[in-house]
Amino acid sequence: MKTFYDTINDKLVAILICVFSLFCFSMQAEDVDTNIASIDSSGINNLVYKSDYRINPERKGELLFELDNISFFKDNEYSTSVMKGYSLPGLWLQPKLVFFPLQNIKLELGAHLLRYWGADKYPNMAYQDIATWKGEKNQKGVHAYLLFRAQVAISRVNIVLGTLYGKANHNLIEPLYSPELNLTSDPETGLQLLYNSRLLDFDMWVNWESFIYREDVHQEAFTVGLSTRVKFNTPESRFHFYMPIQGLAQHRGGEIDTIMTNSVQTLMNGAAGIGVVWNINHPIFKNVNLELDGLGYYQQAGSLWPFDSGSALYARASADIHDFRIKMSYIKSHNFISMFGLPFYGSVSTKEEDVTYNNPQMLYWGAEYSHSLGKGFSIGIDLDIYRRLFCYKSGGEYSSPTDDAPSTSFSAGIYLRINPSFLIKKF
Length: 427
Known about the structure:
Elements: H1 4-29, H2 44-49, E1 62-77, E2 86-102, E3 105-116, E4 121-123, E5 138-140, E6 143-154, E7 157-163, H3 181-184, E8 189-196, E9 200-210, E10 221-231, E11 239-252, E12 265-279, E13 285-301, E14 309-321, E15 324-334, E16 355-358, E17 361-374, E18 377-388, E19 391-395, E20 398-404, E21 407-418, E22 421-426
Antiparallel strand pairs: 1-2, 1-21, 1-22, 2-3, 3-6, 4-5, 6-7, 7-8, 8-9, 9-10, 10-11, 11-12, 12-13, 13-14, 14-15, 15-17, 16-19, 17-18, 18-21, 19-20
C-alpha cells in the first residue's frame, strides 16, 4: 500500500511532467522571443529585494566576483493581540564567484551571512519554522549558509538547481508571503523552473528546508510553490489586464525519522484573482494598479493549526508617483492561516497561545520610497499602518468569545542594497 509520503512524491512527478508539457505547448503556440521581459523598475520589491535571473550570452567565459548585500533597520510597533512587536537592525552579505562557461549556463558559489547588531550567536538551523526541530548547536558571530547555483537557459525556460531565485522573485501577494522575509529568512534551495512569454509568467519551485537521515529525530520538510501570471494583453498597454494564480504546499514528515506522533503535516495556501494596471506613463504619475484575490487555506494532514480549512477576500490598490508608491488594501478572512504571510492577515494569534479570531478584518495603508543610486546600488524606505477592525477572539484563557477592540499598528524600515560585480578573468 502506498504511504502518504509516496503519494506526495507521485504528485510532484506528475506536476513536473505537466510543467514541461506546458513549456512545449507554449513554445509551439507562439514565435520564440529571446528577449525576456525586464524587471519592473519601481517599488522596494523590484528595486531592492529582487535579483535578475536573466543570463547575458555575451558574458560567456567570464569569471566574476560578486558582492550582494542588504543592510537594514526595521522597527515594528504592534499594539494588538495578534503578534508582538520587535526590531531588526542588521544585514545580510553574499560574497560569491560567478562563472559563465557557456552562453546559456551560469554557475555561482559563495555564502549567505546574516548578522543582527548586538547578537553574538545564532541558532544553527534554517531560518524558517520547519516542524518542531530547532537545531541543537549555535554559530558564533554570524549565521552562515552555503550558496551554490547551477542555472541553464533553454529558450524561454530557465532551470535552476541549488540556490533558487526566491523570496520577492516569486511575486507572491503579501497575505501569502511577508516582504520582511527578504531580510531574515535563509536562501531557498532545491529546484526551480522559470518561464516567461507574451502570455504567461511562470515560476515553480521546490524549496528543501530540512533533510533527514535514517533514525533522525527531526522531520523532513519541503515547500512546493507555484506563481503564475496570465497576461490578457501586453504589460505596456494603456490598460493591462492579468490574472495571478499562486499556491504553496508545505510537507513535513518522513518515513525514516523516529518521530511517532504528528509525524506528517501538510499545509496549503492558494490565491487566484484578477488585476488591472493603468499605465499613465507620465514622468511623475507612472501607473495605478488594482487587484482582487480570493485566498484559501487547507490543512490536508496533521493538526498543527487549529483550523483545517479557511478562506479570505483580499483587495489592494497602489499608485506609483515618481519614486514613491502609495498602497492600501483590505482583507476579510474566515479561519484563514498563512504559512509565510504576516499574522495580521490571518485568524490566529502568535502572541497569545491558542487564541483565534472570528472573521477578522483589516485595513492597510502604506507608503514607500525607492530609488536606484546607480548600477548595483539602490535604497528603499517604507512605512506601513495596519488597522485591525472589531472582531471576537476565543481560546486560550477565554472560555467564551470576547471583544477584540480595533487597534492600529505601525512598521517602518530603511534598506540599502549593494550588488557590485568585478571581472576577474575572461577565458
